[in-house]
Specification:
single chain, alpha/beta, 7-stranded parallel sheet, two-stranded antiparallel sheet, 13 strands, binds 1,4-dihydronicotinamide adenine dinucleotide
Length: 399
């Protein structure tokens, strides 16, 4: 069979294995051509990534393995392989090809696929740290993005991406039909606010750090980082002042708690505020797409657009090592280009004029959609999309 794109709403139902490999090769190339000034001795060698199969987690893994750090990595992710239902997820193939390419360079690249919230996966991670990393980690990257987290009683907390206090009218964009859909979001209930905090806040990050401390798996000077978003005023109703923003404030507070937990090891922890980007997770945020397509257009026009790999190269080289550079709230800011006056002035010229009829011309919808397709291995130069695959052959590839 030939593998073709299949999209339902904003969810990719197929992924192209060779395209996923190409996307990783492109990111490796970006790392190799970036200026690499921080010496290896100042960078982490043994890195644990929670959520390392796509988005910022995968970009972190590539930046640290293929940059000056030459890091070994253990990554946890929740991905699906090929079955009668389909070819599997992009993250499945990202795991496979990252490992192949990193091992060719002599790096350790261990993939643990399963639910990061479960006791079983925690135990497997500790075992891998013991076996592959001589028992210690130098950097823990918390990059999970999910809609659910199990409660201790086995029920689930479910996040709800909603405004708080007032309803919000806005537009979302569906990739499946290239359509602009206006809708009104009702404000979250207090239960939804709390559930979203439980799923996307900092509680699980702290629990992971406790697990690692209790297993004596923290190296001296170890650091930890988790990712956040704040955004400009125009997005605050759906993000910063909505349920997601509440969860991120919780994550920022958790960064101080994790920082204290790591202090006895000479370590530290931070939340890094990143720019808005197309990832598997971010396309789910309702009413956010008009801002992102305006932002993409503005940042490309001004020559400052970044993809996850460029954000992560800058984070590890310029902002986290050798010394962390933080703002007044102890946040690392990699959203500086996004929030610059010039970029935001251009966004505010574009965004208010977007409509169902012109969003493809006025905003960078085509660039936005292309990045989404590329996340799933499609629309990449140098890939033979006529190549034939069989499920049996794909099933032989293991992460
Ligand atoms: P993503 O969807 O690309 O990656 C999420 C990762 O989490 C994947 O590796 C996935 O397999 C893993 N995962 C999800 N549930 C899991 C589970 N139960 N067990 C194990 N692994 C699981 O998401 P993205 O966008 O890279 O998000 C990472 C973080 O970055 C999130 O905290 C997000 O809020 C933050 N962020 C994202 C921005 C964006 O524009 N995409 C902007 C700023 C921050």
């Amino acid at each position: 069979m030939k593998i073709r794109p299949s999209i339902k709403g904003v969810v990719a139902r197929s992924a192209h294995p060779a395209g996923c490999k190409q996307a990783i090769l492109n990111q490796i190339e970006a790392v190799k051509t970036a200026s690499n000034s921080t010496p290896k001795s100042d960078l982490p060698k043994r890195v644990l990534i929670l959520g390392g199969s796509s988005g910022f987690g995968l970009a972190s893994r590539i930046a640290l393995s293929f940059g000056n750090a030459e890091a070994d990595t253990i990554s946890v992710s929740f991905e699906r392989g090929p079955s009668e239902k389909g070819v599997g997820t992009a993250g499945w193939y990202n795991n496979i090809y990252f490992k192949e390419l990193a091992e060719q360079q002599g790096r350790i690249a261990t993939n643990i696929v399963g639910d990061a919230f479960s006791a079983d996966i925690r135990a497997r991670v500790l075992q891998a740290i013991q076996e592959q990393f001589d028992g210690k980690v130098d950097l823990i990257i918390y990059s999970l993005a999910t809609g659910v987290r199990p409660k201790p009683d086995g029920e689930l907390w479910r996040s709800a991406i909603k405004p708080i206090g007032e309803s919000l009218h806005g537009a979302s964009i569906e990739f499946e039909t290239d359509s602009w859909v206006e809708h009104t979001l009702e404000p979250a209930t207090s239960e939804e606010i709390e559930s979203t905090r439980r799923v996307m806040g900092g509680e699980d990050w702290q629990e992971w750090i406790d697990t690692l401390i209790n297993a004596d798996a923290i190296a001296s000077n170890a650091r930890s980082i988790a990712f956040s978003y704040i955004g400009p005023e125009s997005t605050h109703a759906i993000y910063h002042q909505g349920t997601l923003g509440r969860a991120k404030v919780d994550l920022h507070q958790a960064s101080h708690a994790v920082n204290l937990k790591l202090a006895p090891f000479g370590g530290s922890a931070y939340a890094a505020v990143c720019k808005a980007l197309v990832t598997k997770a971010s396309v789910f945020i309702p009413t956010f797409a008009p801002y992102v397509i305006s932002l993409y257009r503005a940042m490309k026009e001004l020559g400052v657009h970044e993809t996850p790999i460029e954000q992560m190269i800058r984070l590890y080289q310029d902002k986290l090592y050798p010394e962390a550079i933080v703002d007044g709230e102890r946040l690392i800011r990699v959203d500086d280009f996004e929030l610059s006056e010039q970029v935001q002035a251009r966004v505010s010229e574009i965004m208010p004029n977007l409509t169902a009829d012109n969003f493809m011309q006025l905003g960078d919808y085509l660039g936005f959609k292309q990045e989404f397709m590329q996340l799933n291995g499609f629309e990449l130069a140098g890939v033979d999309y006529e190549q034939e695959f069989t499920l049996e052959e794909l099933a032989k590839l293991t992460p």
